[in-house]
Amino acid sequence: MTQEGEKIVVETTCNNMKTVLNTINVDSLKQPLFLGEDLAIQRYDRLKYPKFYDLYDQQMNFFWRPQEVNLTKDAADYKNLSPEEKFVFDSNLRFQTMTDSMLSRSINSLSTHVSNPELEICMNVWSFFETIHSNSYTYILQNVNPDATKFFDSILDDKEIVKRAQFISNKYDSLLNTKSDDPRQQILEALVSTQITEGVTFYVSFACSFYFGYRGKMEGNAKIINLISRDENLHVAITQNIMKILRDQPKEGFQEIVKKNEDRIYEAYRVAVEAEKDWADYLFSKGSLIGLTADSLKHYVEWLADNRLTSMGYKKLYNAKGNPIAGWLDSFYDSKKIQVAPQETEISSYVKGVDSKIDESVFDIKF
After folding, report:
1. pLDDT digits (tens, 9 = 90+) for 77-99
2. How far apart are the first and last CA of the chain?
3. How far apart are CA 258 and CA 243, in angstroms?
4. How do residues 147-199 score in pLDDT, each as one tens digit?
5. CB neighbours of residue 209 within 10 Å
6. For a FRET experiment, which of 33, 193, 196, 339 has its CA 20 to 30 Å from that of 309?
7. Are 208 and 292 in contact (CB under 8 A)?
């Protein structure tokens, strides 16, 4: 690279992607995932990391709309929930709504540092899917809650939910407001935060939604959450592949900083798991639910955290022996084992009829 070219890289890094179109013919095969030269033409005829284009493509194949699910039965079910059940359902819906409101913006802020075209398109679609999730919560509330507007207004008044959001938002706020000439630390922390949010933080809430559906209540809501959960697993694959590349590929410029932050990665997982455990206690503070306990959810989230860490090549934190709610939870994920009247929830797969299962290969990248 010429001296002039080197100057362009430095200016781009310091000024945080100063142009929306680099008119220099950049060889994307020689650019890192983050903090390289500004992106030029959006082209996908040559790919440094084909996995991210595959993940973009699979997200597109999974396109869905919440309006495809009929919530008529859910509206009747909601009126008949016990006070304890309604507290769990409403609290989880508040948290899910708040967190997905952050995620789409967070991914957009992270993507401003991207210098790889296939990762750019992958993250653009990822952010779009988070808005589908946010729209889903509005759709659910407008169909089951007698006053959706009042419900939305109450979210930011719930101290427990706002407290849960702090761990996630702080990492992105740091990235948005960084004045550093080298934002790699903030990028790494935002990536780890995203990995944990998509892979751990939602799952106590998801499990409760599936619990209701498994017991024949709020089945349309459970169907929508199942679609959201499937998306989130695909998003976990995105962050997992990014993390592996940054850790294992010296030319990406992150290897040393990832290694230096290994203890912080474990600590971030510990904090997230403890937050999930606190949330489980909060959900059951008004009373218990038949067949679901705070303790079982706590063990579940430990098992899940171990699973996420080992899939990235890290050691387990909890040495969890297994998923304590696997029996009914797995049967819920397998739609063939659930008998749901078609007129009540309508869809069990995406509208286009594509295979909605996630192949395990999406979690593994080859160099």
Report:
1. 999 999 999 999 999 999 888 88
2. 24
3. 9
4. 999 999 888 888 877 777 665 566 545 544 555 666 898 899 889 988 998 89
5. 26
6. 33
7. yes
Contact yes or no for 161/97 (Cβ under 8 A): no
| pLDDT for the residue 269 | 92
Q: pTM for the full model?
A: 0.83
pLDDT tens, position by position, 226-281: 999 999 999 999 999 999 999 999 999 999 999 999 998 999 899 889 989 999 99
Q: CA-CA distances (angstroms) from residue 142 to 47, 62, 71, 122, 320?
A: 43, 24, 10, 31, 39
Q: Are 115 and 31 in contact (CB under 8 A)?
A: yes
H-assigned helices in 72-202:
72-79, 83-111, 117-144, 148-155, 159-176, 184-196
* CA 278/CA 281 separation, integer angstroms: 5
CB contact at 8 A, 121 and 53 = yes
Question: Can you tell me which residue has the tokens 């948290």?
Answer: 95
Catalytic (active-site) positions: 137
**CA atoms of 124 and 135, how far apart (whole Å):** 17
Go through 316-327 and write b for each residue having 16 or more CB atoms within 10 A of its CB, e for each that does not: ebbebeebbbee
Is residue 114 helix, strand or coil?
strand
